[in-house]
Amino acid sequence: MGQIQIKHQEKLKKLVEEDMLNPLLSSGSAFDTSKTVLWQWLNKNADVVKTLALKDLSIYGNNRFICGWMIVITTSNQTFKFHILLDTYFPYSPIRIAYKTNDFFLKWPHVEPNGLLCLPAENNNGIEEKIYKNLFNAIELIENCQNSEQFREKEFQDEFISYWNHSTGSVQINSLLDISNTTSRLIYIWSDSKFKLVGESIEQIESWLKHEGFDFNLSIVTTGIFGFLHKPPIPPFPQKPINFIKALAKNSNNITELLAKIPFNESALIVLGAKTANSGTGLIAVELSAQSINGFRRKKLYRDRINLLLRKKRGFLNRKNIQRLDAQWVHGRDQNEGLKALQNAKVLVLGCGSLGSQVAMRLAQSGVGNITLIDHDTLVPANVGRHALGVNSVGKFKSTELKREIRKKYPHIQTIKSYCKTWQQVYTEKSDVFNNNSLIISCMGEWTAEGQLSDWQDSLMTPHPIIYGWLDENGTASHAVAIVNQSISLKCIINENGILRNPETIWEKGGLMQTEPACGTSFQPYGPLDVVHAEALITRVAIEFLTNKISSSTHYVYAGSTSKIKDAKGEWSTEHLKYRPIGFEGAFEYEKSLLSKCQICEQCKKI
Tens digit of pLDDT for each residue in 467-511? Predict the structure, then answer.
């Protein structure tokens, strides 16, 4: 052990010497001048100040503090001994403080190994203010821990996951469990050499694994238990099964009854949820080892009481880390109030090009549970610079590749389908695809297709909400038109030639369309940053509609800067200038909520 410690100190000494040759840490650097200010303040205000030797710094291991001091401070009540520690990022990193009077790791909250204190981040200006406030917080924490059992319990409970995981090098478990359901219940576990996955049903686990590209083998699925604790656990944690099971009986509902049903010769994984007063809900896990079957009949089913008794008397337990991958956590850390509506929503996306692909990806990322993609085109290299897909998808159908990519990125999505055809072909062959959708989003960018879609929408007896999205010439403006009822038609906004009746922009030569050296290859020269604004606008309008924040037809516009449209040889229209603040030349967004019938289109004439 002595040789190992010497080698570690020599390595640390070498690293410190190398750091001191670093111009960021050398004489006159921010590190050097700030360290001097700190040292002077300590000498002025502490009772004792001693520079820490390398062996003192080495105990903190990977924190790699390169210098520090031992100080003693006496208050009216007691004397405190601290280490003041600096790393290579100081003064831009916090000053760390370790309490050196006794070892209170897992006895007091916010105390890490070797006495390092986890203190609130301070944004005070100046080194002197920072060290003063840090020491004040350190002394306040120590006195609260010394004097108040209620304080210790509350602080442990608020961050119970950190303390549970701190004391074990356990294997990662991933959870798909719905923690809004606090009922104690049996759950399902899939595991291989890499990780464990726990879920509510075999079907849920199979879907998630297949989306991620794993082979699913039903024979390796086992059962475990999920339950909620009345109060978050605090140290010292149970070390033996008997103590753990007794704690469960007092602090939960029916978990021990479920545990009794798992044969004692099988390991039992128990996932536990607990709600804190200030920090939301957290998950922890425990695995109880399988018990030897020696002396028992292998095929005999033993009574629940025997199973539980043997669990208490034999074996051992392991605390486990668990990582939440359920939709509630991934899509908003339990704070997304509209998530349930989004998960139940069914959205049909028409057009998976540069705009539609980004919108579909963002919908999945926002938590929409059911998405259908329609696009008949393949990806070409020139699309890649502004598309959600990369070069590995060139030559393949956009809708199929986008489905694969979304499924892999967001494997908890409930359903995602794709059709490599035009929307008219899909409608002719399988019209039910267009029924029972919460919303249709059209990003096709072709009036021949969207004009017919608008005719179809106008012909329906009951409303089928559609959001039409596109970019203006050269990406200077973006549009999201939500036609959610039959009070107005898209034709009231766009004429029979696919041109806005009241355009935002004015162009010479049709907006300076660009062409490739081939027939029928004209395109608008907008880039990925222009698409970002458009997809954010369209997705936001979609999310607001799906969460009942939009109930009437409306038209949102994102307009870029005046300098951008001038560079593209265009100008803002009189219609646009009604909304642009006088003298303002930057980018902004606005809503045209007072949509009115044009009295010109066929839909208006029909009514």
Answer: 999 999 999 999 999 999 988 999 999 998 999 999 999 998 655
Which CATH number does 165-325 carry?
3.40.140
CB 155 within 8 A of CB 304: no
For the stretch 546-588, pLDDT in tens is 999 999 999 999 999 999 999 999 999 999 999 999 999 999 9
For the domain spanning 339-606, the CATH number is 3.40.50.720
Distance between CA atoms of residues 282 and 481, nearest Å: 41
DSSP per-residue codes, 239-275: -SHHHHHHHHHHHBSSHHHHHTTS-TTS-EEEEEEEE
**b or e along 534-571 (b: 16 or more beta carbons within 10 Å of the residue's beta carbon)?**
bbbbbbbbbbbbbbeebeebbbbbbbbebebbeebebe
Instruction: Tell me the whole-structure pTM to 2 decimals.
Output: 0.85
DSSP secondary structure string for all residues of 128-145: HHHHHHHHHHHHHHHHHH
Domain residue spans of the chain: 2-147, 165-325, 339-606
Residues making up the chain, counted from first to last: 607
CATH 3.10.110.10 fits 2-147, yes or no: yes
